[in-house]
Amino acid sequence: MLDTNNLTFESATARLNEIVKSLESGTSSLDEALKLYEEGVALVRFCNNALDNAESRIKILIADENGKMTEKDFSENV
After folding, report:
1. In what helix (H) or strand (E) does residue 10 lie, and over which residues does it extend?
2. Which of 7, 66, 74, 72 is closest to 42 using CA atoms?
3. Is 64 domain-assigned?
4. Structural domains in the chain (count)
5. What contacts 74, CB < 8 A, 6 or more positions away?
6. Which residues fall within 8 angstroms of residue 19, CB to CB, at 6 or more apart?
């Protein structure tokens, strides 16, 4: 199980890059490759959750024709 308590988005993506390089090299045994794959899946889930959380916090300011600013959730425009 992946410990995400002290994990940052940046460290997760860096580790994902390491895992991809290792799997692409083809030098891992089947058991090692499966463990790396499972770790990668957990890291992708962690990163997706981090991105979803960040997206929910982003607001977009929109000016109408009179210059009045309104705020909308970022996810409404995606």
Report:
1. helix 9-25
2. 7
3. yes
4. 1
5. 55, 56, 58, 59, 60
6. 36, 37, 39, 40, 43
Summarised one tens digit per residue, pLDDT across range 24-66 is 999 999 999 999 999 999 999 999 999 999 888 888 878 888 8
Domain that holds residue 73: 9-77
The answer to whether position 26 is within a domain reads: yes
2 within a domain of the structure (yes/no)? no
What does the alpha-carbon distance between residue 16 and residue 42 come to, in Å, rounded to a whole number?
A: 10
Q: How far is Cα of residue 30 from the mean position of the Cα atoms in its chain?
A: 26
This prediction's pTM: 0.76
34 assigned to some structural domain: yes
Structure tokens at 9: 């988005």
CB 40 within 8 A of CB 19: yes
Separation between Cα atoms, residue 32 and residue 78, nearest integer Å: 38
